[in-house]
Fold this protein.
Amino acid sequence: MKPIKKIVIAGGGTSGWLAASILSHQFSREQLEIELVESEQIGTIGVGESTIPPFVGLINNLGINEKDFIKSVHGTFKVGIEFPDWSNKGDSYFHPFGSLGIKFGVHEFYQAWLKAKYEGNDSELQSFSPCNVMAKSNKFFPPQQAKNSPLSGASYALHVDASLVAKYLNQYCNDKGVVRTEGKIVHVQNHEDGRISSLKLDSGKEITGDFFIDCTGFSALLIEKNMGIEYEDWLDYLPCDKAVAVQTKCSGEALPYTVSTARDHGWSWRIPLQHRVGNGYVYSSKHCSDEEAKKQLLEFIDGEPITEPVVIPFKAGIRKSIWNKNCLSLGLSSGFIEPLEATAIHLVQRSIDLFLKYYPDQECEPTHIEEYNRRMRMDYEEIRDFIVLHYCLTNREDTEFWKHCKTMDIPQGLKERIELFKSHGNLREGIDELFRAPSWQSVFEGMNVRPQKYCPRVNNLDSEMINKVLNEAKESIQKVVDQLPTHQEFLDKNCKAN
Ligand SMILES: Cc1cc2nc3c(=O)[nH]c(=O)nc-3n(C[C@H](O)[C@H](O)[C@H](O)COP(=O)(O)OP(=O)(O)OC[C@H]3O[C@@H](n4cnc5c(N)ncnc54)[C@H](O)[C@@H]3O)c2cc1C
């Protein structure tokens, strides 16, 4: 066994610094030397500010004080995403984090609710989600501090300032002995067998290592430019290929959720931070010019712009081998799915976790690499299909973009999932999928897709009893939420930005 003695990370965006943080937390300085190269001249993509709940788990697992982190990155709490105008213009739904519903013995909550609904109960599905009820009232309280209450099933993520996260993690890594080197990589050198041996910087400096992590963003300097690993694009399923982003001053209290509004040629995001708001318009360049997108974005926003709008081209897809020989690609260099459900940073986290599971020695056995690539592809495809679901269920036909989304071909697995759900409300769930039943049910219901029938087994439950339990559950969530502080009050009291 020849253990890896040194890992070189190329790139210091969110993925580079997250990789360095997780690895330096796992291995002592003596076990593993870590060097990160980044170029201030090139900079980072500067977006990527909405996260999902596993990110909070990661911060805690790294031993970082959550409140201190939120203060430093000017963060806010996020309990889900609001989706206006996706099904029809004027409609809106919420995809909450955490639980949706209460226990009905051996029966699924959703099926009991469906039966009640078909028998005339008027409760909204989302009134059984503590996160949705908090969002609607603009309230927030950490569920871990509300054990044994209807709030305990809630969950949360964070909105963060991406550049402050990189800065924070840079300091974290510095304390753990990670070496940061400033410079532009101008050449990648290989061993005879194709493995990478070193990176050459514009200063002439050469950085050698046993293993390399490509975090160079869309330029994919190591995995693509050097190793020639191709990119598989998913534009047929995800037609948006550009975004324009602009930051604005805060207008009013920070909301505890992201807003992702369907627009004429795509959708726009609104991510509230403590000191500013991040906004963007994700669009299809086939249907909308950059100028038109910029113009529309400036019309949507509700605060004064503090940056110039920046256009960011991208291509949805996945690297054919995310890991090749002694090079792992991470973040934007490994693949990209548009940020509708804010999954990219999570995929970075997931990629490193899985890398640690299959952690190699210097030989980098192909069997490990193949299994890793297979697992990561499953994750990417699962997320892709969940994102496509948001588009393909639309009823909108008011623009060419939405007509296309309504009729476009979708992945076979997704077709099957939709058909399965439409008949009896069943879901096909994998073993370790990211989006579980509450997520799928929220999007289906939000997009006005309700099963034709409920599962007949639920007829074992007495209708009156179901109604009683539903009414009590709804009231008890609302009652607890009514007593909570507003999101802004909670932030000001506990994690006001430094
Ligand atoms: C429009 C848009 C919105 C997004 N929104 C979200 C979101 O809400 N939530 C989410 O989870 N994700 C989101 N993402 C994805 C998220 O931005 C990325 O996953 C995350 O920022 C990681 O990027 P990265 O570190 O891979 O790349 P980058 O940030 O591009 O970093 C690349 C690094 O490589 C360095 N580099 C490149 N070339 C060289 C060179 N030659 N020499 C030296 N250094 C070099 C750069 O200097 C930089 O440090 C979004 C992405 C886009 C495009």
Summary: Residues 42 and 281 are 23 Å apart (CA to CA). Residues 366-392 form the longest helix (27 residues).
